Amino acid sequence: MESLKPSAEVRLAVSHCFQTLSKSTDSKDIPAALQKLNSYLDEGPESPTTSVHRAEFRRTHFTRSLQFLVNNIQADWFHKLTATQRTELWDSLFLRGPPEQALLVLMEGIGLSSGLDHLVNITEKFLQSGRLTDLLWSYCLETAPSDSPQLRETLLGRIVALPDLTANRLHPNNKPLFLPQQYYPLLAAEMLTALDRTCQALKDGTDCSLTFMAQTLGKVCIQGHSTVVLAVLVPHLSMCTCSDMVWQRICWKLLENVPQRWMDSVLTGLVEAVRGPDALGRIIGNLVLTNKKAQFVITHKLLLLQYKYETQTLRVVLGYLAADRDRRPLLIQVLRSLSQAWANPSAVKHTPVEQQLYVSKALLLSVALLKDSELLELRSELLQCLLGGMQSHLDSSVLRIRRMGMVVGECLSSRMDISGTKLKFEVLIMGIEFAFTVLLLFYYCCAVKHFDQKHYINKISSSSSSNDTTTTRKFCKVFYSCSDDELTPYDMSGDQEISQASPPRYIRDCLESMLSLKAAEGLVRRNVFATKEISVQLTKVLLHMEDKYSIKSFVALRQSTMVAIVVTDCIPVTQYLTTEFYSLNYSLRQRLDILEVLALAAQELSKPTSNKSRPPITAVADLTPYPGDNPVHWRQIVEKRIQSKTKRLSKGATQTPAVASPNRYAPVAGHFFFPLLSNYDKPQVTFDLLGSDHLVLGRLIHTLGLFMHLAVNAPIAAQMGL
């Protein structure tokens, strides 16, 4: 009889084991069948199976065997196994075979309701025994079975989202190892171990692939765990790349293979995690020159689009661009972009002060990194930026922006003017503005060696107030050292609030300076005729207003003022708001604000007006009457005596009936209702009620229902209901 092929032999043997486990009643057959399955995982010359049979089992039958065991975890034969037999025969199948297949089966089994505790324990052993390293290393050596993109994406999802998957299933009984605080540092350590093996393999002449490792890193970072993972990876990579070129090549290849959709998260976390520009250069190399996404993140997003990062991040990014000859053209490109952003009048007027401070620091640091030859080439551009930017900053009504313009102007002129003529302002710096300006000067002086330190120390020392003496000493102490440590915040608990300016008297004053938002509502309601002249213009200002100055109860004050304007001049303002609701270039928050203002205004208009008159003012209002001459006193006494001696069969109404008043909402209900209903099914470029913006659609339906309810007794209610 002709012998069977190895694939057929393995298939028949595995099927026989499954039949034995399913049907056998002999207690000796169960361990023997499990031992037969384990024999296909034994390595070495003493293994009872051949290498061809073992490879066929791993490739074709391993996942099927594990799924069979998981599905029969509640069978009688499983519970008849002793604790030792379970560990040596059942658990070992999950801990010895291909790790990627075992992890997928375990995570699938945890989602089932049967045998949960035992599968959780095996998964914990899987992580503790270093199987994640084996998984990553198998993909580095490309010994893992070839898989489809869908299967690889599933495996990446199970590795990265393991804490979420186990938490959803285990709830309060989750294992500590599965928590994000422990799992992600463990994953980072396993990645480092796999990279160490890769480095040694490359030195031994073995080819390796970092594609799967890069995908794992990108997936972890995009899901928000970059800080935890890179806190473990970066120090080790920074140390290994100091003197080992193989490690540098590994890091460069690792980042080159990160998918484009995840490059942003990886680079952002990496820039925040490294200690200096040299370490960043060793880890990512010249990635900004070969990868457009990386170039956008490093040269544009981190410097111009976001401003949440510390100054150390700016130093790392700009120092990285300046450290290599091939990257210095990008530093000049960044300097041009920063100077244009700093000098842009629209940016000075509309961007937050914090972002302008961030851009100013980046501009000063980039100028400080220029060589003299580069500075001469860019001198005309920087001079034009200086003149335009100074004008824009000095024209601002915000004191901090004016101070910023003066400080940046002085620093730029001291760096550019080679002939010796420098721009100097006599700036009186006090209070919090003193700390703000000192901070900006400090960042610059730590980057420029030939900075005129004595001039600024004398200026700051002489212009600071008595409350700022401590801060002055701290600044002067670190001014000469130029260390990388940031200034320690000083105690401001003893500062006194500066007296506020007098409130405006006329409604147009509110239009010119909306810092007086607290007084705006009262002025609107008291000055009806003046409000009607500028009602639409004032509403437009309020609708686009941002809380740039951290005004207390800003949202409520702005909303109440807009409601007062709608009530005062109903038809024009309502027409403006309902038209703007469907206009372009409005955020969802602004559209929701429009609906809230219209709803509150309709409710106020539908309520009866109060006709209470003010109490008369007399000349003797402040005089205290004698107790015996109080007429109210004796009248009350007489009234009580009459009431006590009078018998009544019934009492009529004791309260004065309410005075009827016209419904102010009924005549204008159509102006609220119909314009909002007209364009709900017409999608705009940035606004689609029936699509992605369904949240606003729900609020719109609620608001229209409120308008209909308030107009229930109005003649137009029938048309509104059709």
UniProtKB/TrEMBL annotation:
What Gene Ontology biological process does one annotation of this record name? 'de novo' cotranslational protein folding
Q: Where in the cell is it found?
A: Cytoplasm
Q: Name one GO cellular component term.
A: cytosol
Q: Which InterPro entries match?
A: TEL2_C_sf, TEL2_Regulation, TELO2_ARM, Telomere_length_regulation_dom
Which sequence ranges are marked TM in the entry?
A: 425-444
Sorted alphabetically, the keyword list is:
Cytoplasm, Membrane, Transmembrane, Transmembrane helix
Q: Which family does it belong to?
A: Belongs to the TEL2 family.
Protein name (Swiss-Prot/TrEMBL): Telomere length regulation protein TEL2 homolog
Tell me the organism.
Sphaeramia orbicularis
